[in-house]
Amino acid sequence: MVPTGQLIEVSGVSTGLLRQGKGPPVLFIHGANGVGPWLPFFEKLSTHYDLLIPDHPGFGRSDVPAWIKSVPDLAFFYLDFIEKLGLKGVHIIGTSMGGWIASEIAIRDSSRLASLTMVGPAGVKVKNVPVGDIFVWSAEEATRNIFLDQAIADRLLSVKPTDEQLDVMMKNRFAVTKYGWQPRMHNPDLEKWLHRIKIPTFVGWGREDKIIPASYAKRWKERIPHAQVEIFENCGHLPHIEASDALFAKVKKFIDEAAV
Amino acid sequence: MKFVLFHLMPYRHLDLVEAKKYRSAWTVLPNSMYDPTKGAEEYASYIEQLVSGERLGFDVIGVNEHHQTAYGLMPAPNLIASALIQRTKTVKIGVFGRALPLVNNPLTIAEEFSMLDNMSKGRLVVGFVRGIGAEYHSSGINPAFSHDRFHEAHDLIVKAWTQPGPFAFDGEHFSLNYANLWPRPVQSPHPRIWIPSQGSSETIHWAAAPERKYPFVVTFSTAEAVEKYLKSYSAEAHNFGYEASSDQLGWAAPIYVADTDERAREEAREPLERLFNDYLPMPWEMLIPPGYTSLASTKALAKVRTGLGVERQTLEQLIEKGTAIIGSPKTVRERIERMREKTGLGNMVCLLQFGTLSDELTQRNIERFATDVMPHLQDKKPATREAVPSA
């Protein structure tokens, strides 16, 4: 069931939030394209957990505060968010740019976090291993490069977005530009602090990721040696869409063990 | 009316068939397609063309800045300006302009312009621009902060030119303990600042403000758009409580003059169509990166998407829409005259070499324009100017 969206006030920012389910809190941190439609992955999470999916400041239904300018700003914003909602023992799941944000939250303060899951995270740049240029691609190229299964891309591209959806897409694109254009989708100061992450950590990657190569998982494992790493075969940049069942099974097991 | 002989310095030897295999002639076009031997000759020819502008009576000879493109070989336009200063005595030298947001220390722009103003003994006219969308890809500068960086850089440069140094500058994007310009500019309070633009309402409002009154130049637009933007500048000025003078109103366009309309069209056709269909086009993602224009403006632009290179433009269409001025001396005079009557236009920025136009046709075009068009429309010049010996 698709939850009704709500707006909550955090640090003076009116923030869009989808919340559904009961159980330990799971905070889903969306990627560069925003929350998007209610996915099977969300439905499954919400049958086991108290699932919270906010729109980042600048995205979706949230305000566009001029003072939030960077992913480190977003990380502090989410620490305020977690406090404001009185959440404890939070399991964070971030995909792509959301994985970057999740790691920036965790290096700052993980006292209210129970676990960290990052799927195809941005945030770290491995020298001489290029990442896809999401800003130069057309919408069609981007859609085709995100998924390995071109049937998914075909399906998405065959649907003409409504004016309202176009507005949100453009708003999201402005936000991801502000946070990720320069340095391109990473923070040069993140990697050296990843050892601060002591909570159980899971890193997932699609083997055929054309945005951020799966070889990046190795670097994350080097910096967070206790992390579990799982590579999903026959899968592109978004395992929570393209390998939804497999990812959910792994993540549920990981979260439930971490919660013990 | 004042006349600027303006140059983009395109790389004419581009393999246009090969180039079409790439997204654009900007940013992603491999520079293996540039032959330095041929390129060196391009610089030599283009500098000659500009220098001839003094002898032929142009008020200003001008260059501009573009990066990583066959469309224009001037990533550092001040280098060309410096060469032009050495080759001329009285003509004004225009740099239209430097892209302020693309640099990490705008004081270097203040310094270089100040040097050029000294070296030319006060002949410099400058332009402040934001750079085009592709240049946010090539420089890496975040387009989301383009406007903020432009305004902050502008404030720093003008302050450095006009306030005693050293002073500290505490900006959001640029922060300096010491801003202390050696040399200071010759012109007082500083070289004239022009604002070349495609006509965003925010820019027009800002340029027309009484504390600035910056001359505004509409670039590469249809005659209808040029009229609309120049009128809206004048309306802004009126709302500010003053009347815009003609020297605040400018238009930059490709111009070609020959004996007859037919001959002009024949000679200009291929070079002009090359400019608009081969050198200029770029995809939307390069042209309008997110944040480069406001969300509202970007939405409006996205709806029409008739931007550069979206559809092929023919010579006839470019003439019809008034984007290019091509024809006999009479036709060209009338086109410019008509715009002056409608808008009070006072600065005509003339692109007399465009696309693949050859040296021979370019020089003929420049001379024809200077002889048969310009004198009919040009302001009377001070006596000193008439004393310039012809080469």
Written account of the structure:
The complex is a heterodimer of chains A (260) and B (391). Chain A is of the alpha/beta class and 260 residues long. Chain A has helices at residues 40-48, 71-84, 97-108, 139-146, 150-158, 163-180, 216-223, 239-242, 244-259, and strands spanning 6-10, 13-20, 25-29, 50-54, 90-95, 113-119, 201-206, 228-232. In chain A, α1 runs parallel beside α9, α2 (71-84) packs across α3 (97-108) and α4 (139-146) packs antiparallel against α5. Chain A is globular. Chain B has 391 residues and is an alpha/beta fold. Chain B is globular and about 60 Å long. The A-B interface holds A 135-138, 166-167, 170-171, 173-174, 176-178, 181-182, 184 and B 23, 28, 136-137, 140-145, 283-286, 289-291, 295, 298-299, 302.
Rounded to the nearest angstrom, the radius of gyration of chain B is 20 Å
Number of helices of chain A: 9
Largest β-sheet summary of chain B: 8 strands, parallel, barrel
Q: How many β-strand runs of chain A?
A: 8
| Average pLDDT taken over every residue of chain A | 97
Q: Could you provide a short overview of the structure?
A:
The complex is a heterodimer of chains A (260) and B (391). Chain A has 260 residues and is of the alpha/beta class.
Brief descriptors of the model:
heterodimer, A: 260 residues, alpha/beta, eight-stranded mixed sheet, globular, B: 391 residues, eight-stranded parallel β-barrel, two-stranded antiparallel sheet, 16 helices, 11 strands, 15% strand, disordered C terminus
